[in-house]
Write a structure and sequence with these properties.
The longest helix has 16 residues. The strands form two sheets. Strands 8, 9, 10, 11, 12, 13, 14 and 15 form an eight-stranded mixed beta sheet that branches. A seven-stranded mixed beta sheet has the order 4-3-2-5-1-6-7, with helices on both faces. α1 crosses α2. By secondary structure, it is of the alpha/beta class. It is elongated and about 60 Å long.
Length: 295
């Protein structure tokens, strides 16, 4: 797929590649064209024989992979970013998963094995969003900040970090405003794209580490779960389809390439139309961490 590059961006893209920076963090208000810029920069970097990766740190509106995750992608053969790793956050709202978002973004950047990592961020820029951006910038330590569109809140964030070089680019002519209904539709499509072709398979839970945010012994049908390896790294995202008395969970999930040693979940699930739904509890219990089948 070929993406037309806005003329106002051409010089900036070449400047970024000429600087040979390693981490580029992109800021901007919602629907300013951040994802468009990240995709174009990724394509230009690959065309220039750079090993480049996209780190998508927006859990709500995804450029690569499923929502409720921080994701890492590389440019695929069709010209679109292809998912290569994820960290499950358990929510689509960045401010509700602040610590895990920072830790997940840092861990994915470390395993990117790329000489250019393009970091896309959410559109929250003022108040708590400004503080979140400061924390992300501190965690990712970018060599360059790029703002898309004229926005005084983005300028404030740049002023908070005067030691980091910055590029200011105009809003993309391809960008358009989206309402919340369209955003929900896009999230459903992203979940469907991730899960629709995934197989259903059983996972025996009596010898793996189980971590629930609300004291549940096992995740019920419809709940989203992260399948982790023995080091605690998330491998894939799964959707619980059912439970068996034998201790097996029936999951719809891509087959991981390593042994599953842990399962982690919260309240977020999906309905039959791939829309997010939240479990409610009258009296939420404390988070639980236990080895199933052991005292």
């Amino acid at each position: 797929m070929t993406i037309e590059t806005p003329p106002d961006w051409q010089a900036a893209l070449q400047s970024i590649l000429d600087r040979n920076v390693r981490h580029v963090l992109v800021l901007g208000a919602p629907d300013a064209g951040k994802s468009t810029f990240c995709g174009i920069l990724l394509a230009h970097a690959v065309a220039a024989s750079r090993k480049a990766a996209l780190l998508d740190a927006d859990p709500g509106q995804k450029q690569v992979g499923p929502p409720a995750c921080v994701t890492l992608g590389h440019l695929g053969t069709g010209g679109r970013p292809v998912l290569s790793a994820l960290v499950f956050l358990g929510t689509i709202e960045p401010l509700r998963c602040w610590p895990r978002l920072l830790a997940g973004a840092a861990s994915l950047a470390a395993e990117a094995r790329a000489d250019l990592v393009v970091i896309n961020t959410c559109g929250l820029l003022r108040g708590p969003g400004r503080r979140l951006k400061a924390a992300i910038i501190s965690a990712m330590r970018p060599d360059l900040l790029v703002t898309i569109g004229e926005d005084r809140n983005a300028e404030t964030i740049l002023a908070d970090h005067p030691g980091i070089p910055a590029l200011r680019l105009p809003r993309s002519a391809l960008a358009r405003r989206k309402g919340e209904g369209e955003r929900r539709t896009l999230r459903r499509a992203a979940f469907r794209n991730y899960f629709e072709q995934a197989p259903c398979w059983p996972l025996l839970t009596n010898r793996i580490h189980l971590e629930s945010g609300d004291g549940e012994a096992l995740p019920p049908p419809g709940r989203l779960v992260a399948l982790a390896d023995k080091a605690g790294r998330d491998l894939v995202l799964g959707l619980v389809m059912g439970q068996a008395p034998s201790g097996h969970l029936l999951l719809k999930a891509p087959q991981p390439d390593r042994v599953v040693a842990g399962l982690r979940w919260g309240r977020l699930g999906l309905d039959e139309a791939w829309a997010e739904q939240w479990a409610t509890f009258a009296q939420p219990g404390p988070p639980t961490r236990h080895q199933s089948g052991q005292a």
